[in-house]
Amino acid sequence: MRIGITCYPTYGGSGVVATELGIELAALGHEVHFISYSQPFRLTGRKEGIFYHEVPVSSYPLFEFPPYDLALASRMAEVAEYCELDLLHVHYAIPHSVSALLARQMLEARGRRLPFVTTLHGTDITLVGLDRGYLPITRFGIQESDGVTSISHYLKERTIENFGVTRPIEVIPNFVNCDVYQPIADEAARAEARLRFARPDEKLLMHLSNFRPVKRVTDVVKIFARVARELPAQLVLVGDGPERSAAEWLAHDLGLHTRVHFIGKQDSVNKLLPLADLLLMPSELESFGLAALEAMACQVPAVATNVGGVPELIEHGVNGVLCEVGDVDAMAACAVELLGDAARFEAMRQAARRTAQRSFCANDQVKKYVEFYEQVLGRN
Ligand code: GMT
Fold first, then answer.
1. CA-based end-to-end distance of the chain
2. N or C, which terminus of the chain has less Cβ within 10 Å?
3. CATH number of the domain that residue 164 is part of
4. Are 21 and 142 part of one and the same domain?
5. Ligand 1 mutation pick, 19, 42, 121, 265, max ligand atoms within 8 A of CB
6. Which of 214, 287, 369 for a ligand 1 pocket mutation test, highest count of atoms within 8 Å of Cβ?
7. In terms of pTM, does the model score above 0.85?
8. 109-134, pLDDT tens digit by residue?
């Protein structure tokens, strides 16, 4: 198949999922064309069967807001025609589904069929799409899609509830490549790499996000402060975004700046995650929680919040920890208890990886996408 993929190419889970999906599809022999305003950040290096088409957005004095969605629609139609795409797959409903709808109509007028699949990821449904200014067009884009998928059951239910969408929504959970995200087998090599952040006797806690308010990054620092009172530990925060400065200030204010490391955006998080003992994900809301899944594949359990689609991934006390939003005391207490119980911790580490392998393995989920494309194309 020849598949066009559109996503937000910057730091964010939906862009990560779209990129990883494209890489997996290309590995299966499909031709994948990314269409976006910049190259997705995880799409590094030239890969067989993967092409990138930039969307140029011209600005004119008349345009206070350059119409990216129109430029995108135009480019989608153009790429689809020149590269003979079978279908488009857009990630995040706004504005991508509406641009795809326009591209489909443009090609229809030229006698060409271009169905499109929309994958719903999170705030497109739970936040931005609910804004009165965007709600009617978001609902229209979803309803008019040739196929709709959602990354969790929670998000599917929210979409039906919030938008009254009547077309079927297929749940295809997020996935991880367990060969790329895996524990470091060589314990000596792991110990050596870990020295970059922590002494051998110290526990290493990690956080990975786009530092948006919904991630509650200051809670990460607060949890760590409580843990660090009980045992020797270091905290590494991977990523960047609007809340970084508040979190940095808090770490300084609490006198923790020598033990809290903000290392910014990183290309190969699969090399960092296995160095951690625990991942902290105290988000206000997660429709899935991809960072937790990536950590779990590396045998790193997450201390997370019991929100949105997270319970579809984490079973409290089995493969991770779930607490209420904002309850930093409980999250810290659970982390300390777990880190102090070697047998329980080891069982949880194993269970975390097992969950990633059994229920969220890239091979299985990507197969579901391919079957879904076939269905949309009317081939089965
Ligand atoms: O909603 C966001 O904050 C951004 C969005 C994204 O595009 O990065 O994240 C959502 O999609 C991820 C990938 O499917 C999920 O793992 C995240 O849980 C989800 N975020 C939220 O629901 C807040």
1. 14
2. C
3. 3.40.50.2000
4. yes
5. 121
6. 287
7. yes
8. 999 999 999 999 998 999 888 899 99
